Amino acid sequence: MTLVDRTARDLRQDIAAGAISAVEACRATLDRMSSVNPALNAFNHVDGERALARAAAIDRQRAAGERLGPLAGVPIALKDNMCVRGMRTTASSKILDSFIPPYDATVVNRLESAGAVIVGKTNCDEFAMGSSNENSAYGPVHNPWNLDATPGGSSGGSAAAVAARCVPLAFGSDTGGSIRQPASFCGVVGLKPTYGRVSRYGLLAFASSLDQIGPFARTVGDAAIALSIIAGHDPNDATSATTDVIDYAAGLNGDIRGVRVGVPRAFVSEGVDHRVRTAFDAALATLRDRGATLVDIELPHAKFAIPVYYLIATAEASSNLARYDGVKYGYRSPAAKDGPLKTMYSRTRDEGFGAEVKRRIMLGTYVLSAGYYDAFYLKAQQVRTLVRRDYEQAFASVDVVAMPTSPVPPFKLGEKTADPLQMYLGDVFTVSVNLAGLPGVNIPCGLSEGLPIGFQLIGRMFDEATILRVADAFERATDWHTTTPPLE
Amino acid sequence: MSSLTIADVERIAALAHLELTDDEKPLFTRQLADILNYAEQLQAVDTTGVPATAHVTAATGAERPDEPRPSLPVADALANAPDAAHDSGLFRVPRVIG
Predict the structure, then answer these.
(1) Does 3.90.1300.10 match the CATH number of domain A3-260?
(2) Residue B18 with chain A: CB contacts under 8 Å
(3) Is A199 annotated in the active site?
(4) pLDDT confidence bin for B61, thresholds 50/70/90
(5) Residue B65 has pLDDT above 90, yes or no
(6) Burial class for A170, CB neighbours closer than 10 Å (0-12, 13-18, 19+)
(7) Which residues of B touch A363 (CB under 8 A)?
(8) Is residue B54 domain-resident?
């Protein structure tokens, strides 16, 4: 096993024990990135110099006998929508092409305080809007398992970077499935924490009532370690929760006897590809064999989650993205140098934003506009309440809910770009989780024609511990997490 | 069925400060109409007496003492501006009235 195949936990142990240096681990990662990234396009930005300097600092800390953080010397990557002071951050948009953040996101502070070494920023759909990573201004990411397939989106670069053994840990954001779906497509673990569990300070906002930051990893254990570091209250994010953070990795004991797993049979009976269904049924059988009890549940309003999500998320986006106007940062159109100001705004935004972002701003503006607010936006918010209540009722009788993550295996690049609505329909199993604010984790559970399939476990609010325990027990019983993409 | 027209799309684009090209207008009209037609299914859901959810968590711990704290230095705030008057600490924009 080479250095780049190691988990974050093992790397940190070896660095702390002096078996390898943080600089060696960092060099191995940078070498791996330069060999595979030309084919993947997973990174928008690599900062090897900064990373090596940080790694050297960890080695000095160790030599001086200082206490090392829980991720000391572990190379990590961040989706390019999280601010790192002094490191170019673009959200994969032309409108932020030259943006250098003047401050760190809270997750960046927490990860670097834990000793993690940031090696670069990963490609994603522009402003995290997309399900295939094809909406990036810097070109699509390619799936490490098959370069003709999409890695999923919007955090496609982070998922691909972990699957391709560039880094053991990467971070993304999930507004409607943008961590779980690419994790499923790339065959890695991807966790969306409860809304409010992780501070959003320094995350470029898409839909503020839905956005949440979370980790990608090759094992549930690494995802659990990462969550304990990034979770917790932050005075800079008024929506971050004060609920206690626990040692999530400590609870992974492999014992799921008696855990009640809810399966929304009616909801998952329609429109699911037979290959996904086969893998999902096998995953449920594994959970049952490990001692879990399968319980049929109903989520009668979950089928409305896609329209609800696309009305609410776009409304919030239209407001959040109003800040990109060519004045304070980013791109300014050269077209209206002499004014008027309004023309400078509208030219800048038309030239700076890609098609999907413009579509969503338009849709959001429409549903918030006079005459349509009640029929679309308010109605969507009411149905959001019904989606939440379905889960609340389900969790009265089960501990977790299991569903496929995506109704289809990874699709080909270019296959769905002509029809935005068809692309949206692929989010059927992920968006309801964001609407209800619940935690969800994708776990690899199959391979079909060489492409990964995953399923997700959804938990009660702030009960990441239980979904991670069930996910870990599943991982112990299977070897999907040890299979590697044929990428050389 | 939604009967979105190009004029509607032009009106929305103006509200959103987007100057769409002539190619974009018919494309967005069709695509947005598709999405709105799909969203029409929500009208069939009985939401009588159902409160709206704007946010899933009641904001707790959001209050803090109203005390001044250091903010971003002006030079840092201006560093990314496409056009800034650094000496006077201002963002510069084209004239407002055409």
Answers:
(1) yes
(2) 346, 349-350, 353, 358, 361-362
(3) no
(4) low
(5) no
(6) buried
(7) 32, 35-36
(8) no
Query: Which residue numbers in chain A have pLDDT < 70?
Result: 488
B5 to chain A, any CB pair closer than 8 A? The answer is no
Q: Which residues contact A442 (CB under 8 A, 6 or more apart)?
A: A179, A180, A181, A183, A184, A188, A189, A190, A191, A405, A454, A455, A456
DSSP 3-state assignment of A163? helix
- At B2, the pLDDT band (50, 70, 90 cuts) reads low
ipTM here: 0.95
Q: Which of residues 35-74 of B touch A (CB under 8 A)?
A: 35-36, 38-39, 41-43, 45, 47, 50-57, 59-62, 64, 72
> What is the model's pTM?
0.97
- B53·A385 Cβ contact <8 A: yes
Identify whether B94 is preceded by a cis peptide bond (ω within 30 of 0): no
Compute the Cα dihedral for A454, A188, A316, A359 and give only its sign. Answer: negative
Q: For residue A305, list chain B residues with Cβ-Cβ distance below 8 A.
A: none
Residues of A within 8 A of B13 (CB-CB) are: 346, 362
pLDDT digits (tens, 9 = 90+) for A99-123: 999 999 999 999 999 999 999 999 9
Whether residues A382 and B50 touch (CB distance < 8 A) is answered with yes
- Tell me how close the Cα of A330 comes to any Cα of chain B, in angstroms: 7
CATH number of the domain enclosing B22: 1.10.20
Query: Does B75 reside within a domain?
Result: no
The yes-or-no verdict on residue B1 having pLDDT over 60 is no
Q: Beta strand A117-122 with A75-79: parallel, antiparallel or unpaired? A: parallel
Residues with Cβ within 8 Å of residue A16, at least 6 apart in sequence: A62, A68, A72
Q: Which domain holds residue B37?
A: 6-44
How many domains are contained in chain B?
Answer: 1
Residue B89 lies in a domain: no
B17 in any annotated domain: yes
Summarised one tens digit per residue, pLDDT across range A330-368 is 999 998 888 899 999 999 999 999 999 999 999 999 999
Q: Can A79 be counted among the known catalytic residues? A: yes
Nearest to A460 by CA among A448, A449, A468: A468
- A329 contacts B80? CB cut-off 8 A: yes
Q: How confident is the model at residue B64 (pLDDT cuts 50, 70, 90)?
A: confident
